[in-house]
Amino acid sequence: MTLISGSNAPVGMRGKAAEAGKKAAAKQGRDLDERLGLASAGRWMLNYIFPDHWSFMLGEIALYSFIILLLTGVYLAFFFVDSAHEIIYHGSYVPLQGVKMSEAYASTLQISFNLRAGLVIRQMHHWAALIFIGAIGIHMCRIFFTGAFRKPREINWTIGLTLMILALLNGFFGYSLPDDLISGGGLRIFYSVFESIPFVGTWAMELLYGGPYPGTAVLSHFYVIHVFILPLVILGLLSAHLAIIMRQHHTQFPGKGATETNVVGTPMWPGYMAKSGGYFFMTMAVTALLGGLAQINPIWLFGPYDPIRISTFTQPDWYIGWLDGALRLWPNWETHFPGHIIANTFYPAVILPGIIFNILYAYPFLEAKLTGDKAYHNLLQRPRDVPGRTAFGAGFLAFFFVLLLGGSEDVIAVAFDTSVQSVVWVLRVGLFAIPPIVGAVAYLLCKELSAVPSAGKRPLANVIVRSVDGGYAATPVELHPLEAEHHEELEPAPVGHVFVPEPEPQLVTAGVVSPASAAERTDRGPAPATSAASAPVQSTSASDIPGVRQVSRQGTPGEPAPRSGRHLFFPRRSHGGEGPNGSNGDGAGTGPDSGSD
Amino acid sequence: MTDVRGPHDPSGAPGPSAAPIGTTDTETYAAQLSVAARNPKRVELVVGACFILAILSVFVLGWIYTQRGNPQIEGAMLFVLFGGIGFGMAAWGKYLMPRGPFVEEREVLTSEADEQAFAETLKRGQVAIEGRRSFLLKLFLAASGLMGAILLFPLRSLTPAGASANGPFYKTEWKPGSLVVDESNNPVHYSTLDVGGSMTVFPYGYTDSEDDQTLLIRASLKPVAPPDQPEKLQWSPVGYLAFSKLCTHAGCPVGQYEAEYQKLLCPCHESTFNVLDACAVVFGPAPRPLPQLPLTLDSNGYLRALSSYGEPVGPGFWYRDAL
After folding, report:
1. Looking at chain B, which residue has its C-alpha nearest residue A251?
2. Hey, which CATH number is domain B180-322, 3.30.70.100, 3.40.630.30, 3.10.20.740, 2.102.10.10?
3. Which of residues 332-361 of A touch B (CB under 8 A)?
4. What is this structure's pTM?
5. Pure H helices in chain B
6. Predicted ipTM > 0.90
7. A420-451 vs A387-406: helix axis angle to the nearest 10?
């Protein structure tokens, strides 16, 4: 049951062999350490602590799907032909036999129908790309809404944002490579959009496509970009992203003894390594299941690219859909100068994403400026505690989703049996009307949630007992010691920063309940609990967890916790003077055994 | 605390009980090392079953591979293989490993002493650029900057000869008298289309061209033109109209002719053009009408171009109005 059981190891033949193996391993380890000095760095690595929270998995999914993309992509690269040279197909897919198509398209058919496991790998590659981009998006939302981008992590926010843009781009390049009917339409639009950039647009596009549209080298250029340049850049930035995380350590949610100056969680070895490795394989598993059972991008049904055959209802992959929606919703303006024009597509497809991404890049710095918050932050915030930011983010997402709907306006028009015109006008109005509404609703919801002291806490079950004289008493059940820590996780216990107007639970010693914690318990149950029944619960969760320094929440027992003044949008920190890594952290954050190391 | 390798152990000395994190109390450490599961035996069974399933799936995968494969079974078996390993590992890590919780102190990222020492170290290089040697630095920067400029040279090589910003869309292969042909290079006779019919046509010999593709529409039996442009009546012999198929918005092929409403619809962004009004934009993001190709009939009744397009076809670009 415990891992330190070396003393009572079995003696015998197997025991001796094991001893010999251990000695050999130790010698090898010493040899390596003498040459590379690995022991110290290795120990640091094995001791590196990852905080436990499910939302930290999102970034991992992005990382793992990128690895899947590399693995499946290498396999595909062996068999894909990056040539637009036209041939007559004589392969095994009967419906297209005798059809003129590019070698790229023919080789994609070959991969799908003739290469063993080719279709599974190809579909896994496509699914992994979608998961990659989706996971990055959700990961960014998590970072945004919990305030994980705040100092000192602004740099990693910008790197992550760049990674998302590169992932979008590379998704588009890869999507274009099979040269099928639908991706061919995308190639045409991509050319037109970037051709519209003043001065450089036409030159840049001719360079990329190898001449005026359709160009002579578009597939080979895209191929080099897709399999070499962008993956390399992504790999480099990803490494920087991870290295910076390791250097700064993870953020963590308050509770479970977490403070601004420590990290509470699972160390790399052995627990995190097993869990994280398991997540990698589980990501692989889901991708493989999708790749095997869920058909995606069946290019043989679309046919090779032939502009004569493009029909309506062309839909880009969803991650480009918002840009397509912007193209569809933008009015038919074109700016004329003497001798020059700024084409219509420049505004919705170049300027608009430019503005959006620049706002996102600048956000951490803008928010710090707005709040005057220059302190280090290692503890995450709950979205409801920062209503201004949450409202902004919700409005931003609403804007994005209206654009995404715009990308499907023709499908919507058919589904609702109305005209495309009316759908476009509804969405044009909605694009400006919906985000403020969503933002306002989110803001009010945050305020409401903050006002409810027990919101988000897991309520304790009550046992209702009728006494002899007919009275009723509700008694909260005891928590199992192992559940206590999960319960604790949900406690909004912002250590060092108090912005929830709520009496903070006090440090409790076994058997004694301070007035504040008893008052808090009253909030949970309909009837006051007997303090004797609930005291062991609190003491288990607070002080019996081995190794966790007890957190003495601010204030002395009996006094309400200090509250900070509230900024209109962003709660202002009352501890603005906190130094790097919490110079006053010892006083505010750590408790009795803070001197143990 | 600035020791990168052991922030939680500034002395650097190995701890008494093999690297306890956050505590030196061996009793606490032992408690931290106990597994998290309430019922470890059951978890052991589940984890073992997961790994056994993964092992079995490898054999199924091998067998499928010899049978020339089947995407569905391959996907499902890969799911069992990866999922078995993954779920087993995660459950192992979550329930059968030290339950902790472990704590470590964050290292302090900055210190003024370090920053000062860094600045002092930088000054070591001062002597190299003092006095007239500062000119060397300027020369070096100039050389490096110009070295960056040679990166631009290959750009020119990547650009195909003859291509320039003045190339695209200014000139199509439609010349006065060009024979109108279908995609198989067959000439189009005036009896080819009924009223309400449409087809994609090219100038003779250029059926693979992107820029030249033109939509031929039979809108009526008689010439058609907007009332305010009567000169265009002679462009549409016996009701045939020809418009560039490249949308003026993003260059998609505008191919959907709705004869009932005399509208042309772009498949990409739903721009709508009025055929009877010289393809003026009715709705959608397209900023300009589709350029019209003037048509005529030759003595054999075949359609020919009366002249070339009077303007660049396709979407707008910065130099569009330069000529």
Report:
1. B106
2. 2.102.10.10
3. 332-334, 336-345, 348
4. 0.81
5. 26-33, 40-66, 71-95, 112-122, 133-149, 153-158
6. no
7. 160
